[in-house]
Amino acid sequence: MSTADMRAVIRGEGGRFVYVVSALAALNGLLFGFDTGIISGAILFIDTAFELTPLVEGIVVSGAMVGAAAGAAVGGQLSDRIGRKRFILLSAGVFFVGSFLMAVAPTVEVLVAGRMIDGVAIGFASIVGPLYISEIAPPSVRGGLTSLNQLMVTVGILSSYFVNYAFSGSGSWRIMLGAGMIPAVVLAVGMLRMPESPRWLYEEGRTDEARAVLRRTRDGDIESELSEIESTVEAQSGNGVRDLLSPWIRPALVVGLGLAIFQQITGINAVMYYAPTILESTAFGSSQSILASVFIGTVNVAMTVVAILLVDRVGRRPLLLVGTGGMIGSLAVAGLVFQFADPTGGVGWLATLTLVSFVAFFAIGLGPVFWLLISEIYPLAVRGSAMGLVTVANWLANLAVALSFPVLLDGIGTPATFWLFGACSVVALLFTYRTVPETRGRTLEAIEADLRGATGPAADVRGDD
What is the pTM of this model? Predict the structure, then answer.
């Protein structure tokens, strides 16, 4: 976001309060990232404690992804039904239960159950964090504030690496997995005093409450924004989930589902989950590989901050196009490094730099912008349900990549695997150029009004720049 926009928002009490609300809601992202990444270190010691077979080890690791897909499948409709605030409280409770169950698990079966429950909470969080922030933030800084959620995802992943390292000496995997209870409690306690989404309140007929929330989170006149919300609600057909099949919503659904799949099949989580494995194929030892992974995670956080600073200044499309283009170049070079470099000639650091470059470009484009866009482009009546459907597709693609990546490495080799991801990135770039709209500076109601008048997936809903 621009410096001028930031000063405008934080000048009054409403501006300061909306930052507090957004930062607290972004703890959903921290839990999402932490509980996703913590298993990478814990599994080393779980394997020893329970003497896991490779199949069972895979089930333990992927259990959270299965749970996340299930949580996302029901989470969207649930958030539409009970409200965003109560859904966040429910998500925090499920996180706590899953983390506690994993920490005390006496058997592998209980551990897997805890992982799946934790995964359900991850699925919930991947929907409700950006959804709540996008509906409560002013349009001028909505992109930056909503992207706080993705920033906290990267912080959560990095935090999990440090927690794994801190307890690796003692092999305390139960403490690693149970550590997620702490931010879950902080999120639940903090949200008790936070307001409900004004848009959800208005849709439920609670107009006075919606007006009160807007007064708390805005400086100046709120009636024009309230009038836009009123017009949007009155234009809804009232068919709920069935509206997802309406021709006028279909272009937005295509954009969301396409970006959800491309975000995964371009290889980001293959790198994040398997970076130590990839780097151990070079001259790196285990400790160097882990250190390199921490470096990659740090760059992921830093470049997400850059994206937050830029997304309301340059727009969503430019970040997606530049980020995806950079991913293509990084993956092409990575393939060449693994194809031709001498494993004993310092290729480890060269390979690390190509992976860092890939993650950096992902972190300014597909990483945060995907979650931001899907919180903006869907109509209020089906926003939760649409985000749920798109998030399910994202988690299923994540699961497919996580399971297939070791097979690809063994079957076609590391260079060809990176080139395959690069080819997927080329298609993602073309898809973005052809179909993805610009939403910078628009109210959610204005975006919906443009969508109702669109004639195809490439309809222009760009901001007035």
Answer: 0.75
